[in-house]
Amino acid sequence: MLHSPTRDGSPEFARLWERHDIQAAPMLTKTFRHPAVGEITLDCGTLTLTDRDQHLVLYSAPRGSRDINASKPL
């Protein structure tokens, strides 16, 4: 439960909080063919920087996977 002073400080926030209107962002994967490491599949996430009209794209691989080991030299 959210700390009540936070809810009490903004009726609008409290109303939105109670709706539980959230969804997890879909996880995308992308596969690349790199000349040095071969085929590598990475999870792809995007962070939107609305004040700059930009998107930051983040690539990661599961810990201990072949893909993370292949991506280390990159």
Structural summary, described in words:
With 74 residues, this protein is an alpha+beta fold. The chain is 28% helix and 35% strand. The protein has helices at 4-9, 11-19, 66-71, and strands at 28-34, 38-49, 54-60. It has a 3-stranded antiparallel beta sheet with strand order 1-2-3. The longest helix is centred in the first third of the chain and has 9 residues, at 11-19. The radius of gyration is 19 Å and the shape is elongated. The model has no long low-confidence stretch (mean pLDDT 81).
Describe the structure using short key phrases:
74 residues, alpha+beta, three-stranded antiparallel beta sheet, elongated
Order of helices and strands: HHEEEH
Number of strands: 3
Assembly state here?
Answer: single chain
User: Which sequence of strands runs across the widest sheet?
Assistant: 1-2-3
SSE layout and pairing:
Layout: H1 4-9, H2 11-19, E1 28-34, E2 38-49, E3 54-60, H3 66-71
Antiparallel strand pairs: 1-2, 2-3
